[in-house]
Structures are given as structure tokens and as C-alpha cells.
Amino acid sequence: MRKLTVLLALTLAIILAISFFLLRGFEKVKERRATDLNFCGDGVCSKSENKFNCCIDCGCDEDEYCNINNMRCYPHIHGLTKDRVASILIPYLKRYNISYTNITWFGITKVKGKMARLVLVANGKYARLYAVFANGNIMRLVG
Q1: What global pTM score does this model have?
Q2: Distance of alpha carbon 57 from its chain centroid, rounded?
């Protein structure tokens, strides 16, 4: 019970921190819009922006992802599409009798130097964050 309470508190803290930074970022965007400047990250795909220099505003094609470090679209890394990751993760969860009511898919990022898709698996009792690698390996990060 104590672990569950700690896990829920940690999850809530993470959600609050993310919300705080997102809201703070939106406030800065509103301030900049007031000055009527076009810039990457203002939520408007202007004439000078495209998927190669400001994917956060202009978006990417369906088979691409937006790298927020350089604001460019890149093809999904082979083996890390949602379908491929699901075909790795679901059997893993069944094999270890891990029940779930919700799976939330997150983006692709580096974990211990290798690219992986982050996936949050939850039921009414816990939430676990997994990193699923293209080679089929799975690493439990939180929970």
C-alpha cells in the first residue's frame, strides 16, 4: 500500500510539473504574439516555416516524428512504430501476468544511449513506464 501511495504521489508530481512548464511556455507564446512576431513555437505555421525548420508549428507527415531539439521532421525509426511496439509489449505484459486498463503511447527518445519508445501502462492500482527498444528489449523505468 505504501509503494502504491508513493507511486501515485510521484505520478501526480510529474503531471503537475509537466503542466506547470507547459502553461508557463504558453504564457510566453501569448506574450510574444502580442508583439506580432513570427517565431518557431508560436503555434502558427508562417510562410518562413515548414516541417524542416519548425515542425512544432507546421507538423510532420504521419510516418514522421518531430524532433524538438532541432525542430525537424524525421522518419519514424524502423521498429518503433506503435504497431511494432505493441506487438512486443502486449505479449510481454501477458507473459508476466501484468494486467492493464490503459496504455498511453509517448514519443521516441534516447534511453541509455539507444532509441526507444516510451509507454505508460496503468490499471487502477499502478502506473508503470516502459522503454521499448527496436531490438525487442523492454526496460521498466518507473513503477
Answers
A1: 0.49
A2: 17
Helix (H) or strand (E) holding 25: helix 2-34
Whole-angstrom Cα distance, residue 50 to residue 73? 9
Among residues 84, 47, 19, the alpha carbon closest in space to that of 27 is found at 19
CB atoms within 10 A of CB 109: 10
Q: Are 2 and 138 contacting, i.e. CB atoms less than 8 angstroms apart?
A: no
Task: Report the SS3 class of residue 136.
Answer: coil
What does the domain layout of the chain look like in residue ranges?
1-36, 38-75, 82-142
The x, y and z cell numbers of residue 62, run together, are 504521419
Sequential DSSP letters for 105-138: EEEEEEETTEEEEEEEEE-SS-EEEEEEETTS-E
Q: How far apart are the first and last CA of the chain?
A: 13
Residues 6 or more apart in contact with residue 69 via CB below 8 angstroms: none
Bridge-partner residues for 108, per DSSP? 117
Per-residue pLDDT tens digits for 90-99: 999 999 999 9
